[in-house]
Design brief:
By secondary structure, the chain is α/β, with parallel strands linked by helices. 27% of the residues lie in helices and 23% in strands. The N and C termini lie far apart (63 Å). The protein has five helices and eleven strands. The strands form two sheets. The chain has a nine-stranded mixed sheet with strand order 2-1-3-4-11-10-9-6-7. It is globular. The longest helix is centred in the N-terminal third of the chain and has 19 residues, at 2-20.
Length: 255
């Protein structure tokens, strides 16, 4: 009898975690492809994003390249392009991403994924909403919240000391964006750059995170996120979570 009871208790212990596990609210496709300067972040970011998924009941489908873009993307609430060089996508993968957004799919673009050589893929430049020019060396600066009502700003103070590569961008396609974060150029030196390059100032309008609608989808972009350790930072992860949540569901704005 005791043996039977122990067996039943052991079986119950195995079953209880599965019973208590929440069904995912949505599935997020993450494409995190390594590049010359962006690869150490991958295991750190994967651990943190999968933990966020467990905490907030969404599934993470992690891939190291653009191969999923050749398949059926309908089950994904959003695609997170995490430091991924989009110019490495094959022609068919580019078409797959285009069809996904045209069909109502959504995207989150993080840091290196916003960089694309001018003219290589204009559709993608418009998806990002800005075109990369260059960036100064990593420095500490004051990042200001410009939209307190957007989920990607909820976990941040109004003024945030952050150290990153503060990308300089242009707007050749005249894309309207809703700014979430901006960097104060008076708090660092935008001209501190490598020999042979020229640092640029953008002035008071220097966005570092924004959102907009493109094709039939929602797009959230953050230019922050260069160093691996950033993907262990609670504030940064809350910033990223807010953008993912909005892109995947369309919910959370406080107006």
């Amino acid at each position: 009898m005791n043996r039977l009871l122990r067996a039943l208790l052991a079986l119950a212990a195995l079953l209880l975690p599965a019973v208590g596990r929440a069904d995912p609210q949505f599935t997020l496709l993450v494409i995190a492809a390594p590049s010359k300067y962006h690869y150490e972040y991958i295991p750190v970011a994967r651990e943190s994003l999968e933990k966020l998924g467990r905490l907030h009941a969404f599934a993470v489908d992690w891939h190291k390249d653009g191969a999923p873009l050749d398949g059926d993307l309908a089950r994904y609430a959003a695609i997170l392009l995490l430091n991924t060089p989009a110019d490495d996508f094959s022609p068919t993968q580019r078409v797959g991403l285009e069809h996904y957004l045209q069909g109502g799919g959504n995207a989150v673009v993080v840091h290196r994924a916003a960089i694309l050589p001018t003219g290589v893929w204009p559709w993608y430049e418009k998806l990002v909403g800005r075109t990369f020019i260059n960036h100064p060396m990593i420095q500490t600066a004051v990042v200001n919240v410009l939209d307190k009502g957007f989920p990607a700003a909820f976990g941040l103070p109004d003024h945030w000391l952050w150290s990153d590569e503060f990308y300089v961008t242009s707007n050749p396609f005249d894309i309207a964006i809703h700014r979430v974060l901006g960097v104060d150029e008076a708090s660092y030196d935008p001209t501190r750059i490598w020999p042979g390059q020229v640092g640029h100032r953008m002035g008071k309008d220097h966005p570092e995170a924004w959102f907009h609608r493109y094709e039939k989808g929602r797009v959230f972009v953050t230019l922050l996120g260069h160093e691996a350790e950033m993907y262990r930072d609670d504030r940064y992860l809350q910033h990223l979570l807010g953008g993912i949540y909005w892109a995947a569901t369309g919910l959370g704005e406080q107006r």
